[in-house]
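User: Please fill in residues for this 330-position structure.
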């Protein structure tokens, strides 16, 4: 291999290596990218050692099916099902018994329960039904009305678009607030659907299915909590290192100026802005989440609120150390 070819080979190799490093760097969560830069600068100026914190599990592992409640089993004979044709309920009965009905998604199953309740109410006004069948339908209606909360609870646990909120580890952007503002609105809409179900026992099918699609494509709660958890650990590391600093701004005016630049151009403009968006995102999503999932996801909900509180505490501790540095330099 000639010297020229070797030089070209080394150039291509270095370009590929640099490109791969760049891709891997930008695949990292924003918190890691921001704090690596921020801590490296502080280490250099203050002669301290801020190391990346160890990753800890964000949420406890749960079994989704453990929380499911038993739904009442109600059956109709084939002859009774056929007799419901006069009031239009036979099709719903056959849909539930079909292969597609047995494997329908949780949102479709919830819609079916709502439509079946409405169909039962219609059929009970059908004078063509035999008295015995009318008694059976009245019993089924009463049972299903009493199980409304069970159907809703199981929907919250079984619906894949809602599980997505707790399992999708998507990477946040450096400006995540708009995505979580949209998620908060979707959760509020879900609460409205729940209220409608409780009041009228009905569900707008198109609204629920559209909401499922938006939730599936939207932001995830666990991704936000993961970033809150990670930034809390970073903030605690930085605060502890700042507290142990051996630095006097009066002895080094040049270092103090560099420190001021880190504060104003790195922390305030980049790190603090990101932290503020995380805080606001959690402030929007968690209150919208609580009324929906305090029964179906109590462990996850409790941990989510705790992570937000820990984040606020770590943020305050970090800010306190900066204030001590600034005040010592006056």
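Assistant: Residues filled in for all 330 positions:
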């Amino acid at each position: 291999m000639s010297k020229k070819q070797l030089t070209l080979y080394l150039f291509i190799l270095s370009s590929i290596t640099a490109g791969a490093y760049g891709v891997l760097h930008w695949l990292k969560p924003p918190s890691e990218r921001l704090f690596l830069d921020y801590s490296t600068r502080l280490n250099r100026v203050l002669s301290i050692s801020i190391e990346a914190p160890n990753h800890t599990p964000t949420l406890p592992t749960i079994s989704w099916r453990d929380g499911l409640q038993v739904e009442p089993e109600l059956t109709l004979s084939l002859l009774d099902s056929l007799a419901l044709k006069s009031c239009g309920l036979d099709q719903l009965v056959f849909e539930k018994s079909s292969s597609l009905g047995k494997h329908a998604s949780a949102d479709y199953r919830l819609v079916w329960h709502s439509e079946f309740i409405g169909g039962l109410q219609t059929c009970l006004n059908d004078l063509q039904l035999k008295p015995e069948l009318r008694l059976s339908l009245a019993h089924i209606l009463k049972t299903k009305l009493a199980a409304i909360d069970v159907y809703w609870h199981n929907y919250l646990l079984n619906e894949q678009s809602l599980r997505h909120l707790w399992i999708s580890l998507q990477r946040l952007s450096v400006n995540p607030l708009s995505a979580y503002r949209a998620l908060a609105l979707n959760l509020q809409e879900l609460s409205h659907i729940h209220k409608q179900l409780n009041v009228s026992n009905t569900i707008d099918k198109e609204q629920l299915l559209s909401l499922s699609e938006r939730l599936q494509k939207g932001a995830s709660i666990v991704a936000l909590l993961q970033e809150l958890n990670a930034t809390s650990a970073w903030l605690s590391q930085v605060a502890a290192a700042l507290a142990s600093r051996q630095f006097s701004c009066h002895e080094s005016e040049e270092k103090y100026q560099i420190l001021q630049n880190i504060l104003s151009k790195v922390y305030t403009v980049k790190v603090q802005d990101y932290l503020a968006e995380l805080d606001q995102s959690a402030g929007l999503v968690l209150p919208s989440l609580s009324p929906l999932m305090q029964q179906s996801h109590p462990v996850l909900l409790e941990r989510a609120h705790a992570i937000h509180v820990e984040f606020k505490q770590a943020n305050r501790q970090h800010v306190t150390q900066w204030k001590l540095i600034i005040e010592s330099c006056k």
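For context: The CA atoms of residues 94 and 119 lie 13 Å apart.
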